Structure formats: structure tokens, C-alpha cells
Automatic annotation (TrEMBL):
<dbReference type="GO" id="GO:0005886">
    <property type="term" value="C:plasma membrane"/>
</dbReference>
<keyword id="KW-0472">Membrane</keyword>
<dbReference type="InterPro" id="IPR045275">
    <property type="entry name" value="MscS_archaea/bacteria_type"/>
</dbReference>
<comment type="function">
    <text>Mechanosensitive channel that participates in the regulation of osmotic pressure changes within the cell, opening in response to stretch forces in the membrane lipid bilayer, without the need for other proteins. Contributes to normal resistance to hypoosmotic shock. Forms an ion channel of 1.0 nanosiemens conductance with a slight preference for anions.</text>
</comment>
<dbReference type="InterPro" id="IPR011066">
    <property type="entry name" value="MscS_channel_C_sf"/>
</dbReference>
<feature type="transmembrane region" description="Helical">
    <location>
        <begin position="20"/>
        <end position="41"/>
    </location>
</feature>
<keyword id="KW-0407">Ion channel</keyword>
<dbReference type="Pfam" id="PF21082">
    <property type="entry name" value="MS_channel_3rd"/>
</dbReference>
<dbReference type="InterPro" id="IPR010920">
    <property type="entry name" value="LSM_dom_sf"/>
</dbReference>
<feature type="transmembrane region" description="Helical">
    <location>
        <begin position="90"/>
        <end position="121"/>
    </location>
</feature>
<keyword id="KW-1003">Cell membrane</keyword>
<comment type="subunit">
    <text>Homoheptamer.</text>
</comment>
<feature type="transmembrane region" description="Helical">
    <location>
        <begin position="62"/>
        <end position="84"/>
    </location>
</feature>
<dbReference type="Pfam" id="PF21088">
    <property type="entry name" value="MS_channel_1st"/>
</dbReference>
<feature type="domain" description="Mechanosensitive ion channel MscS C-terminal">
    <location>
        <begin position="181"/>
        <end position="262"/>
    </location>
</feature>
<keyword id="KW-0812">Transmembrane</keyword>
<protein>
    <recommendedName>
        <fullName>Small-conductance mechanosensitive channel</fullName>
    </recommendedName>
</protein>
Length: 274
């Protein structure tokens, strides 16, 4: 065939073949080194985060996986670039895909973000008795998506982390001591000093009532039919409700022994004579 130069064709094939082989070798090298670096970074990051007491194991695993797969994506883009694939188009497509997924899962992602904040800042932990998002219970599990509570009547309560983090959190177990508040009413005919003495004796006899801060017992109101005495006693957090229920009974029994009246509404029926 006229114009056909076998030598030039052979030279072109050799040159192209050499470029292909070189790109394959470089791509394989980038892939192997990249995967090794991704695994190394992921393991070391997880190990470093696991040593931090403020970072949960679930969160350590999440961050290490994000770092690992992020590096793998960069490696894949670099490998494709060695074969002449337009990497800018790939990056743009990946960005569009991430944006679309983010918009579709924005509620779920907000829960994940809130879960990360909860795990990092620890407003509550497993076993704490809390009120979050309007529900109350003991924390049984904290995940990246939701917090599980066990209610006092043994119901399972699942609170999305977005609602938990976005509302007021009341942690009843955060501090070792708590204050128990009481209001006891006595008749206007009773001796206020005597009633205060009786109340103090009942509370001070119970070892679960702390001496510091000291017991508070003072007149708080002149009611329509009674004098109201407010009592504030400090206990260990776990003793709060046992002390509360015990004192309601113990003070009533002490008032009965001392002849102190607890006023209550009376009905008087008047019958007219025919």
C-alpha cells in the first residue's frame, strides 16, 4: 500500500504500548500506596481517638472510616487521571452526588451531627436519669442517630439526636447531691416553733439527710386555712425519692404524736327544721 510505513507504525505501537504499560504500573503503584496509606491513617486515627476519654468508640470508628474512605476516593481519582480520564468531571460528579445525598438525607445527617455533639460534649451518659425533648427516663443507649431512654414505667423511648441536642436537656444525675423540697401545713392555732422543732427532729434523725448544706425549715405562706412551712433538705442523688416518700409519712406521724393539726377542707351540713 502506497504511503504505508511499517517502521513508523511499529514505532508508534511501541511508544503507545510503553505509555500504556507505564501508566498501568504508575496507576498500580498509586493504588497500592494509596490503599496502604488509607488503612494506616484510619488505624492510627482510631487508635488516637480511642485514647481520648471524651471520644466514644462509635465516634472514633466513624471519623477513622471517613478519613480512610476519603483517601481512597482521592486515590481512585488519581488512578483514573493516569489513564486520561477527565478528573475535573469526576470531582464535579462526586460533588453533585454528595450534595444530592445530603439534601435527601438532611434529617438523618442532622441526627448524625447532633449525635457527634452529644458524644463529644457528654451532656448525659449511660445510666443517667434525664429529661430530653419532653420525655423522661434512664439513658440506655447513645448512637449516632438516636438516644434510647427507659421510662420509669419500663417503656422504651427513642429520641432522635436532632431533637435531643436541639432542646433543653435536664440531667438529674449530673451531680452527686440533690435537694428535696417539702411543704407542710399546720393550723393557725398550732405553735409554729413547736412544729418547726418536730420537723427538724424528724429530718435530722434520718442519716440520708445531709448535714451540709444545712436543713431549711421556715414559714413560707399564710394560707386561707393554714400556715405553710417550707422544708428543703439535701440528700445523695440516689436517696432523693426514698427520702421524699419517707418524710411525707414520718412528719405526719410525728404531728399526730405531738398533737399538731394538718388542716384539710371540712364540709358542714346545716339542716333546716320544718
Amino acid at each position: 500500500m502506497e504511503g504505508f510505513d511499517a517502521g513508523q507504525v511499529a514505532e508508534y505501537v511501541v511508544r503507545v504500548g510503553a505509555d500504556v504499560v507505564l501508566n498501568v504500573i504508575l496507576a498500580a503503584l498509586i493504588l497500592v500506596v494509596g490503599l496502604f496509606v488509607a488503612g494506616l491513617v484510619g488505624r492510627n486515627l482510631r487508635k488516637a481517638l480511642s485514647k481520648n476519654e471524651r471520644v466514644d468508640q462509635t465516634l472514633a470508628s466513624l471519623f477513622s472510616n471517613i478519613a480512610r474512605y476519603g483517601i481512597i476516593v482521592v486515590v481512585i481519582v488519581a488512578v483514573l487521571g493516569r489513564f486520561g480520564v477527565e478528573t475535573t468531571s469526576i470531582v464535579a460528579a462526586l460533588g453533585a452526588a454528595v450534595l444530592a445525598i445530603g439534601l435527601a438525607l438532611q434529617g438523618t445527617l442532622s441526627n448524625v451531627a447532633a449525635g457527634v455533639m452529644i458524644v463529644l460534649f457528654r451532656p448525659f451518659k449511660l445510666g443517667d436519669f434525664v429529661e430530653i425533648a419532653g420525655v423522661t427516663g434512664t439513658v440506655k443507649e447513645i448512637t449516632l442517630f438516636f438516644t434510647e431512654l427507659n421510662s420509669v414505667d419500663n417503656k422504651q423511648l427513642i429520641v432522635p439526636n436532632g431533637q435531643a441536642w436541639g432542646n433543653v436537656i435536664t440531667n438529674f444525675s449530673a451531680y452527686p447531691t440533690r435537694r428535696a423540697d417539702f411543704t407542710f401545713s399546720i393550723s393557725y392555732d398550732d405553735d409554729i416553733d413547736k412544729a418547726q422543732r418536730v420537723i427538724r427532729e424528724v429530718f435530722e434523725a434520718d442519716e440520708r439527710v445531709l448535714k451540709d448544706p444545712e436543713l431549711f425549715c421556715e414559714v413560707s405562706a399564710h394560707g386561707g386555712s393554714s400556715i405553710d412551712l417550707t422544708v428543703r433538705a439535701w440528700t445523695r442523688a440516689e436517696d432523693l425519692w426514698p427520702v421524699h416518700f419517707h418524710m411525707l409519712k414520718a412528719v405526719k406521724q410525728a404531728f399526730d404524736r405531738e398533737g399538731i393539726e394538718i388542716p384539710y377542707p371540712h364540709q358542714v351540713e346545716i339542716q333546716k327544721r320544718a
